[in-house]
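INFO worker-7 received task bundle
INFO bundle size: 2
INFO processing item 0
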Amino acid sequence: MKLVWILILPLMIWGCSDPAENDEANSSSKKTTSSETEKTVNPEELVEVIGSTYTEYYDAAKTKIKFQGEQDENKQRHGKWVYFSESGKEMNISHYKNGTLHGFMQVKRPNGALYYHGDFKDGERVGVWKFYDEQGKFSHETDYDKE
């Protein structure tokens, strides 16, 4: 089950990207001339670890945070982690315990509306999870303790 979440979580986060940001990126790339060359950024340059706080940025100037959260002594996610859209919107809040999803999770849609929320215990969904439609209105709930 943990493997399923490891595969699904990145897809959910990717699916939460803001389409308007893609338009902004496309329009800004049109403004550059062919004589300008883009600098290739090493992915390691986008990561900063200060104490136990891990921060990953969208840009090399480190002005736009992508992920931020705490790590344990083994450099595994531990505590609250937040994923932000490139425009700075908070899109996902997850809690971890030594690298495993454990605690509250909330995910928003690209338009900012709430998508779903619920709790994890040792990497498994537990309790009642609530799901919302495109406008953020309650749609349905699932009790994972009864499955």
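INFO item 0 finished
INFO processing item 1
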Amino acid sequence: MDKTLEFYIDRYLSGTISTTEWQELQELMKNPATQHRLNQLMDSQLAARAAANPSYPEVVNRLKTAIANEINSTDDSGYDTGRLASITGSPQRRVFLHSPWLRYAAAILVVMILSVTYYFLFDNGKQAAIQQTTIAQQGEITDIAPGGEKALLTLSDGTTIVLDSASSGMLASQGNTRVIKLVNGSIVYHAETTAKPAEILTNTMSTPRGGKYHLVLPDGTGVWLNAASSITYPTVFTGDTRQVSMKGEVYFEVVKNPQIPFVVTLDHSTRIEVTGTSFNVNAYSDEPQCKTTLLEGIVKVHVAGSVKQLRPGQQAQTVLSGIQDAVMVTDNVNLEQVMAWKNGAFSFKNAGIHEVMRQVSRWYDLDIEYRGFTSKAGEGPRFSGDIGMDLNLSAILRVLEKSQVRFRLEGKKLIVTP
């Protein structure tokens, strides 16, 4: 019994519980011993923490009161997991509970509420069917797979190559340079260093919504493109700079060469200059700011005639004022959060619904429509925590629906409502 309950709890917490497992959980709730065991599990978890910290009894009592209130208020309408975040007493609703014992307690609370709801709907003789109206409840019926390794390579002559379907090996020969796709999917450039190029040829790699890709530039610099991004670069670097241009979000690991600086240019007169550095640039056109975050080395951010030099852990934020671009520098940036996309996760800290859905839109190739939400900054639910980007859309939305937000999918349009 313990293993079975913990299995379902773990699946729920990770957002990976399937439709079949959801039904199995409901069947499990028919057993009167289940609720008793759930109470035991919760009591043991909370008691252990209360013994270790004298301040926990107050939280324990609050949790038990919340459980009683939820059970007493449950009726034929079913349960509302959106209320769960309020049990911590936070003034704002949070999707994620970082403390393991709180997350565990919240999961048990969900299952307990399910058991009571199931009793009202079935064991009380009503035999009513559960109306599955949200994406999270529909599960496998209406679902969208996560994005993957997808990109388009545009050669200097306009030829395009779909990289996700291309076989490994040499893809093209341009002047003195060969374009090669490695077995791991990365694209690399091999140039004949002894030969001087007759002309400068440029390539563009672009990722669609729902795609990411890795590229090694002719100088050995590593480039990682997030969804809906692009980078334009020469097939061979010549002259006194290594210059590229980009859109969207790109992470760079630049090969050190103090004599030939590496320069990244953006659409809105921002120029980033480095010699050998690891840094991330988020420059999506639908984001309110362009953010350059330095992980290692030194970066100089040039904007509208001014220059800001960054140290590791700092972030330059370019605010487009319409008159003159203003640059603000932030210290002690959470680098794990900035780089979460490259490492396969969404990472939010007190993020608004619009910020969250912009990322969901890019990774799952969706159009977003808001109904009942205003565009005013700071309004609506807030989200904090991490979610794996390898999950299907339904699993992501199942987690987000624990706050005051609901979703409905119509084709490739996701409708978001309070």
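INFO item 1 finished
INFO post-check item 1: The CA atoms of residues 133 and 198 lie 62 Å apart.
INFO post-check item 1: Residues 70-102, 113-141 have pLDDT under 50 and may be disordered.
INFO worker-7 idle
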